[in-house]
Write a structure and sequence with these properties.
Layout: E1 2-8, H1 13-22, E2 29-35, E3 44-46, E4 49-51, E5 56-65, H2 70-81, E6 89-95, H3 108-112
Antiparallel strand pairs: 1-5, 1-6, 2-5, 3-4
Length: 113
């Protein structure tokens, strides 16, 4: 089992979700976050508003998947989120020690689905 965390541009979210859905990856948690990377908080235009400051708007996706879904998940996020400009984001793939479905008590791969 793996836990995938992706930080992407907010305007790429729907494209990423659509491509994940096509690859039958349905369980995604999305959070609006602020952060900075190599851009170092440089001003940027987002939805026709110039935003300055040290933190930029990003979207964080968290996805728990079984091993066979790791590659399709990473490929979908990479393909849909890429603009080839600085600030496209990052993907982190972490080992997931345990997963428990609260409703049924199922564990690990069965809990992820």
């Amino acid at each position: 089992m793996k836990y995938i965390i992706a930080i992407i541009q907010p305007d790429r979210l729907q494209d990423v979700l659509d491509l994940l859905e096509q690859k039958e990856i349905h369980l995604v948690t999305v959070t609006n976050v602020l952060g900075r990377g190599r851009q170092k908080g440089l001003s940027e235009v987002y939805r026709s508003h110039k935003e300055a400051g040290c933190l930029l708007r990003k979207v964080k996706l968290e996805i728990a998947v079984n091993e066979q879904f790791v590659k399709p998940t990473v490929e979908a996020i990479t393909k849909a989120a890429r603009t080839e400009k600085i600030g496209d984001g990052k993907i982190f793939v972490l080992d997931l020690a345990q997963c428990i479905r609260i409703r049924t008590g199922e564990l690990d791969a069965a809990a992820i689905g």
